[in-house]
Amino acid sequence: MVETTKELHKQVEIAHVMDDLTEMTLNMGPQHPSTHGVLRVILKLDGETVTDLDCDIGYLHRGVEKICENRNYPMITPYWDRTDYVAAMAGTLCYVLAVEKLMQVEVPKRAQYIRVILTELNRLCSHLLWLGTHAIDIGAVTVFLYCFREREQMLKIVENFVGARLTCHAFRLGGMEWDVYPEFGQELKEFLDIFPKRVDEYEALLSENRIWLSRTLGIGVIDEKEAKDIGLTGPLLRGSAVKWDIRKAFPYSSYDDFEFEIPVGPHGDTYDRYLVRIEEMRQSHRIIEQALAGLPEGPVMAKMPKVVKPPVGEVYQAVESPKGELGMYLVSDGSTRPYRLRCRPPCFINLQALRQMSVGHLVADVVAVIGSIDIVLGEVDR
Amino acid sequence: MSEETKTPPSESGQGEKTEPAPTAQPAAPQSSSLPVEPQAPVEKTVTPRSLKQDIEQSAQPAKPPDLQQREDAPPKAEKPAVVEPVAKEAAPTPAEKPPAASAAETPAKPAAPAKPSAAAGAKPPAAKAPAGPTYNDISGDPIVKKLKAQFGDAVQEAVELLGQQIVRVARDRSHEVLRFLRDDLETQFDFLTDLTAVHYPDKPQAFEMVYLLYSFPRNVRLRVKVGLADGETIESVTDLWGTANWLERECYDLLGVRFEHHPDLRRILLPPDWEGHPLRKEHQLEYQENDWVRRHLEIREVHPETDLTGKYEMTEFVKANR
After folding, report:
1. What's the domain count of chain A?
2. B136 CA to centre of own chain
């Protein structure tokens, strides 16, 4: 016990030690409110300017990929709720799509539409959580309360549907466990009616706010070439003027039935990423409206074998999660368990760009940049 | 990780009712070491074991809801026939079915127990065998042709599976091939989506590096595979794509593949002084007894007879009330 405590003290000391009179090493996290979880950042500072930075991750690592190799296919589904727990449906959707693709199962159209509605609701939840916490990091407390008001309304719908708010486990291999509940359409419609006005409210609070502008404009700039090189996807890539979205590039789960735009920001700074996400919320709203209006009749579950045994082979399936490209690379040996299941975690890869984005900025800007990358440590560490 | 319980290999999809059955079978590979399962050779599709499990599955006491689910399928006739003594209360349901069919099947039942299982399990395997995805050769593809012209035998294989293209490349020229794929105007794979490895302990090339490439201008994906023997290193691609930095660190951390000329190859998810690489197949899932755990987690001593494998055991109560 004494040994461990000593060692801990030593580590902290190392992190805090003053190398030089001009350069200082500062430890931020893992217990720090603005790192959105247990992210530890070791900053090298010259005065208050960041000269170098290293991320220490893995505090939440529990080896999901290894666990999956030892579970059979239906048992694995809920594990992917728990990686990116803010947008649980995206992970589950990606997993079930990968298995369905390998088994060549055609999911009923109605199930596909319900999946789209729920995933887009989840995207809204994720973006609202991001907006609230990002704003609170920068100092705008009111937005947080506004965002959570709408998020609560959506989580109620999700809870009425699947029984859980965050770790939903909504999708099954082959479709949905349940059809929509009777009041679903009504409740969703009520929400959809008010939501665009609420987005305008957030924008009224932030988009032309002087403090917000001075904290985000020109902060954490990453241009198109760098963004592709470092592997950014999702709103970060779109914020760097790349018009790319997996829902358009490789449509899955009937996304090609819906009309929506891909918002892009030209400058690649924190403010553009904010605008992109705000616009994405409006587009998600559009998708949900279309999906709800065109919800086809029919079954919600495909005919699945009782024992799920995908044939020998391998498949890569990607979905556009709120954070970026979430991919699953599944290798099957024909047994009831995957031989290897690799997840391409968007947060993990996007977080790598933190160094590039923050060097040269102030410590306070690192907080803004971490917020704009929108990480969930559950997914970074898996 | 250590508290993860080993579950019985019951493979029923959604039917919780039928789940405990395989544990009762002596042949079910429930006991002992965990990583045995994945080491099965890849080409195995219908080994005796999997067939046996099919039999076990099909020989479940057929419950009324069960029967209703598969009303339209022809295999239903066998189900009640096999388990007739058990499913006495379900008698009305088989009676409704075409009597001729069940009568025809009944004599076959005692003679060949494997036959009904083959028929009953027909839905999954029979649907699988012909409909399973096949590897199509794509050496006629212009890009593959160009690669072959450029690199000759270093391009070992080019196949397509489910519309996804896979190219296998020799280890010593992998970096050149990847650079070519990135820079050439016809390929333009300017984005490294993912980089990972798969462990095949039984093969001479124990690791298979997998590079998932994507081309923004052409909207095409390509999977490049490189075989590696255990202990062999591979050239890092951090100079081609910046993404590779953390991805290769993760690959090294979890699988122990070493990358040459990587700027900063150290562990990323696990603690720096951790021993072993958990995504290797020989790595035990159930309990880690190593230096790091002893030093940091202060685990108290356990009784020497305690079972630490974490496997699931049927209590007498469960057995009796099943």
Report:
1. 2
2. 21
In chain A, which residue's Cα lies nearest the Cα of B54?
A: A307
- State the residue range of the domain holding A226: 64-381
State whether A327 and B194 contact (CB < 8 Å): yes
Q: Which of B214, B288, B309 to mutate to test the interface with A (most CBs of A within 10 A)?
A: B214
As a whole number of angstroms, the distance between CA B154 and CA B237 comes to 17
Region of A342 (left: φ > 0; alpha: ψ -120 to 50; beta: rest) is beta
- What is the reported pTM? 0.73
**Block mean pLDDT (10 aa), chain B, length 322:** 42 40 40 40 40 40 39 39 38 39 39 39 41 76 84 84 88 89 86 91 89 91 90 89 91 90 88 84 72 71 67 66 65
Same domain, A208 and A323: yes
Number of Cβ atoms within 10 Å of the Cβ of B189? 27
Count of alpha carbons within 13 Å of B53, Cβ hemisphere only?
25
* Cβ within 8 Å of B, A 112-171: none
Fold type of domain B142-260: Beta Polymerase; domain 2 (3.30.460)
How far is the C-alpha of A95 from the C-alpha of A321, rounded, in Å? 12
Composition of chain B by helix, strand, coil, percent to 5: 40, 15, 45
**Chain B contact present for A230, CB below 8 A:** yes
In chain B, domain spans: 40-131, 142-260
Are A48 and A86 in a shared domain? no
Give me the interface pTM, i.e. the ipTM.
Answer: 0.85
